[in-house]
């Protein structure tokens, strides 16, 4: 017999024969250290574990049927420790689905919820049935089940990416929303295949990493409601059903027993085009909710192990979603590590962004830990040695760890302080100038002890959670009425500005200002030390009509309207230019060897001159300089930001006589809708420069592209 679907164990000989028969099937004890269901040459290995359960049954179903056609109790002698394992011979994986039942004590006050009649999904299922058609709820009485997946995908010999975090430009997108709108022009809207069709667009834009919102199997129909005639779904997907299974409703076609093939093809093609793939993973809670929620999997196997429980058996809710995974319990740790290894090896994923990652550092009683074992284990795991680990360094329980997240020089963070500070400063909050300077230059005050500073900070002004970039400068207040909660959901602290009119307007002056503010945000983001990230559609002014919490909006509110790409072509061109500009100037991204011209590596300028930034600084300057060995010349960039509502005269740093300043970017434009200038188009600038109100300018020296 041979194992034929394990990436790391292809063609490993396993000489085994049936030893007995159960329910008419030849069986024998299985491979106990191989969790889940594994296809062998002549059968399937089923391995599952429960700490407090007293008996376990394997259920086999014909595809789509409610009742099992076979029930195979695990013999007691097929249990070692807390692990049940059995090889079942003669199975055709295309003809069945499987699940489990686990018996044991039922004492909710002690956190024990065993029910011998409850059908349970395998926690290690590689494919989950029941939600293959987006938005269609399972029929009453149906339960989640799993399929056995045959893994024969050919990855070729492409090496793993070795890019530094600071060399990435991350593009966050929702798999469905990216191409679901009719204007996307793809043949398979709302799917992995739809994204594949847009790879030429991503290359043209210039991003080299996509961060996909949750792609693990989730139930978008949970909590479904109707508001103002719209069907609302759990669109974002932050309610995981199965951690090892791709969301089958994101595929263009059915993939029975080869689930993940379309997604793998997308990842391989992205890699071939120089684009990394980062997954947004949700290990802080599951779709099972609190004591009122369904029993899908973990509650039935070991509720008191997988979840943080109060002394009387209720669920701690540090996630804001009903329950909290008990991440630092050894059994849960093992599952998370195996999960991340699986996606790294079998899907060749380049990184993971951990939703509400501070929960991963809480003890079983909910208290924060100084050295959380899970976070340390992930930081030093050999298989995960080159993948990016990015923490959303806060949770819904009030734990905020931006700049203090346990990192071991491996974890980067979504820099929420960058977002908040730059939003405040760019709309005219001069009192934030000093902190804005620190954020733009890599947040060294937060990350010097972590991961070389600029490799720790993921800088962003927008993401899926909150206003889009257009809405940030079109709305003073959130407008979430369509969510059905009376506009009470979503953040109130948006630090936004409508530029003089709330929402849609025909006022040209207001619109011109909005687009200038968007260009300002883009220019500063791309000229900041750290890793820039922005939300899909920001590059062409996509709007959610003021909704800053569109988690339930599977409609035009959330879907990217690609017609805006044509309408706002100039904004797209500006984003594309700034991304390339960043890539062409390593002095922005990291410290270089000393510049031949003698300029310092990094200098901040304020109203009072060099390194003099105070609460009244309206015009902020950042100088980057160093010797670029690759090009054999100095790389010099000066970023100037005027957040004042009037013109401001700035003095550019003094250069050696053989160098001159050239204007590369002016977000206020030249009066002819030109905001950026390529080599040969740039104009030489004397030491003084007059900045228009609320504008950003970028300068380089002769020889710099």
TrEMBL record:
Its EC number is 3.2.1.-. GO terms for biological process: carbohydrate metabolic process. The keyword Membrane does not apply. InterPro entries: GH, GH13_cat_dom, Glyco_hydro_13_N, Glyco_hydro_b, Ig-like_fold, Ig_E-set. It comes from the Bacteria. The keyword Cytoplasm does not apply. Belongs to the glycosyl hydrolase 13 family. It holds the Pfam family CBM_48. This is Glycogen debranching enzyme GlgX. Gene3D superfamilies: Glycosidases, Golgi alpha-mannosidase II, Immunoglobulins. Keywords: Glycosidase, Hydrolase. CDD domains: AmyAc_Glg_debranch, E_set_GDE_N. Residues 172-582 form the Glycosyl hydrolase family 13 catalytic domain. The gene is glgX.
């Amino acid at each position: 017999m041979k194992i034929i679907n394990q990436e790391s164990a292809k063609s490993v000989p396993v000489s085994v024969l049936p030893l007995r028969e159960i329910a008419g099937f030849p069986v024998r004890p299985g491979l106990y250290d191989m969790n889940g269901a594994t296809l062998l040459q002549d059968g399937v290995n089923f391995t599952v574990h429960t700490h407090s359960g007293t008996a376990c049954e394997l259920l086999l179903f014909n595809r789509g049927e409610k009742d099992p056609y076979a029930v195979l109790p695990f013999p007691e002698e097929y249990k070692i420790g807390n692990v049940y394992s059995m090889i079942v011979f003669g199975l055709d994986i295309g003809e069945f689905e499987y699940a489990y039942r686990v018996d044991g004590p039922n004492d909710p006050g002690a956190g024990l919820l065993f029910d011998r009649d409850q059908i349970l999904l395998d926690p290690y299922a590689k494919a989950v049935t029941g939600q293959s058609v987006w938005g269609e709820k399972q029929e009453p009485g149906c339960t989640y089940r799993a399929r056995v997946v045959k893994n024969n995908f050919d990855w070729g010999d492409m090496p793993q990416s070795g890019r530094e975090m600071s060399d990435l430009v991350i593009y966050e997108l929702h798999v469905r929303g990216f191409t679901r709108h009719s204007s996307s022009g793809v043949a398979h809207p709302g799917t992995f295949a739809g994204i594949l069709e847009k790879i030429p667009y991503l290359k043209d834009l210039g991003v080299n990493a996509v961060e996909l919102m949750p792609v693990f199997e989730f139930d978008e129909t949970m909590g479904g409601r109707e508001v103002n005639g719209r069907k609302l779904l759990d669109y974002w997907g932050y309610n995981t059903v199965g951690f090892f299974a791709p969301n089958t409703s994101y595929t263009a076609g059915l993939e029975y027993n080869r689930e993940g093939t379309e997604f793998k093809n997308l990842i391989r093609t992205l890699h071939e085009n120089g684009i990394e793939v980062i997954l947004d993973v949700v290990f802080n809670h599951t779709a099972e909710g609190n004591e009122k929620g369904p029993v899908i999997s973990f509650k039935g196997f070991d509720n008191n192990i997988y979840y943080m429980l109060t002394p009387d058996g209720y669920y701690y809710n540090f996630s804001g979603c009903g329950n909290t995974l008990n991440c630092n319990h050894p059994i849960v740790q093992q599952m998370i590590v195996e999960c991340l290894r699986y996606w790294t090896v079998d899907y060749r994923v380049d990184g993971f962004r951990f939703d509400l990652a501070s929960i991963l550092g809480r003890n079983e009683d909910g208290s924060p830990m100084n050295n959380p074992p899970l976070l340390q284990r992930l930081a030093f795991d050999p298989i995960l040695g080159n993948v990016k680990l990015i923490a959303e360094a806060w949770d819904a329980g009030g734990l905020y760890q931006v700049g203090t997240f346990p990192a071991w020089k491996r974890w980067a963070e979504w820099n929420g302080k960058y977002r908040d500070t730059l939003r405040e400063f760019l709309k005219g909050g001069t009192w934030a100038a000093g902190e804005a300077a620190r954020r733009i230059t890599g947040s060294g005050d937060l990350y010097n002890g972590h991961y070389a500073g600029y490799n720790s900070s993921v800088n962003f002004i927008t993401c899926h959670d909150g206003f889009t970039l257009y809405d940030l400068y079109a709305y003073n207040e959130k407008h979430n009425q369509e969510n059905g909660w009376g506009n009470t959901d979503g953040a109130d602290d948006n630090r936004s500005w409508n530029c003089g009119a709330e929402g849609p307007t025909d006022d040209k002056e207001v619109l011109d200002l909005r687009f200038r503010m968007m260009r300002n945000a883009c220019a500063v983001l791309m000229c900041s030390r750290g890793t820039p990230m922005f939300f899909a559609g920001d590059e062409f002014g996509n709007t959610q009509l003021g909704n800053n919490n569109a988690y339930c909006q599977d409609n035009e509110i959330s879907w990217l309207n690609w017609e805006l790409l044509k309408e706002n072509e100039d904004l797209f061109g500006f984003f594309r230019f700034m991304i390339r500009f960043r890539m062409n100037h390593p002095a922005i991204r990291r410290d270089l060897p000393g510049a031949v011209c003698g300029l310092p590596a990094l200098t901040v300028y304020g109203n009072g001159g060099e390194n003099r930034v105070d609460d009244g600084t309206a015009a902020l300057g950042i100088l980057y300089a160093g010797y670029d060995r690759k090009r054999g010349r100095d790389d010099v960039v000066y970023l100037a930001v005027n957040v004042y509502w009037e013109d401001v005269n700035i003095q550019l740093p003094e250069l050696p006589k053989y160098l001159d300043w050239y204007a590369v970017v002016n977000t206020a434009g030249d009066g002819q809708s030109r905001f950026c200038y390529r080599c040969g188009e740039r104009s030489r600038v004397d030491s003084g420069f007059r900045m228009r109100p609320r504008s950003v300018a970028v300068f380089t020296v002769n020889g710099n592209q």
